Amino acid sequence: MNLEDIKVAKKLLSKEQKIVIIPHKNPDGDAIGSTLGLWHYLNNHGLQATIVSPNDYPGFLKWMPGNDKIVNFESDSIGAKKLIEEATLIFTLDFNHLGRIGQLQPLLEEASATFIMIDHHQEPSDYAKIMYSDVSMSSTCEMVYNFIEFLGDLDKITPEIANCIYTGIMTDTGSFKYSSTTSRTHTVVSKLIELGANNTMIHNKVFNTNSPSKLHLLGCALKNMVILQEYGTAYITLSQEELDTYEYKKGDTEGIVNYGLTLEGIQLAVIFIENKEEKIIKISFRSEGDFSVNEFARKYFQGGGHNNAAGGKSDGSLEETTSYFRKLLEQYKDELIA
């Protein structure tokens, strides 16, 4: 953030506001951690703030302090709509285009509130008065920590805030192994632990609460893995029938795509997940090195994200989508096996 934006933010937060904080649709650990971390900070300062989530999120994130105060638009659309209409200040966290919030998009487009964006994805749109956008950041949670620091309030970070922010940094960096993890990231995490983040507890809550059906679904996914060594690529498919067989719950496929990158010689890993309710194939891309899955997803699969982690979707069938994907790989062979 530049000095002028910091001054404007301080002025906005120095007076009474009706604040709404919004994560992207299908929020992950970074989205929920950043919104809850900011929510605790604002409420601790006597500001009236509420989180409105476009839809539900994985159960392994619902232990976080303040989770029970989140308004889910899908289960309380009337209440959520009223909050957004009456808001004077809206924070949008972990997304930079209103197309990422599903059914909330028209409500935010019509909202009269002042907008503050905090996000680390590429190619932001310009809907916000204050845009704290930095693609070099490991996570939006690290940016929320910075935002609190810009406001001169690091000493106001409570254990509740520290736990929320730590969770988002941990999950969005793949437990600190992705290239977006910097020395600054580790410095922030160290400070969060000093301020009360319980790193062992957080890891156990996020990663060690699996159900048998979730592990069986993982086994199914790995059995479905297709390895295309000649293209440095591995991809996984999961049909709606397979999801139903293994009693899929939101969040059960989180992280499965990364298994492809554990194979020697693989630079691109993809998972294709059928969603018959939305009539789409949801796609997650991961890469190593210089191959930009952000550009690939934007160009071919209505998506985007980061250079090494992105999402997309297809309106075709699972078979049509994977067939199209395999044909595309022929254009990128030299890049993927370099």
Automatic annotation (TrEMBL):
Its EC number is 3.1.13.3, 3.1.3.7. Residues 247-331 form the DHHA1 domain. The keyword Hydrolase applies. GO terms for molecular function: 3'(2'),5'-bisphosphate nucleotidase activity; nucleic acid binding. Gene3D superfamilies: 3.10.310.30, inorganic pyrophosphatase (n-terminal core). Keywords: Hydrolase. The keyword Transit peptide does not apply. Residues 18-169 form the DDH domain. Transmembrane segments: none annotated. Pfam families: DHH, DHHA1. This is Phosphoesterase RecJ-like protein. The lineage of its organism: Bacteria, Pseudomonadati, Bacteroidota, Flavobacteriia, Flavobacteriales.
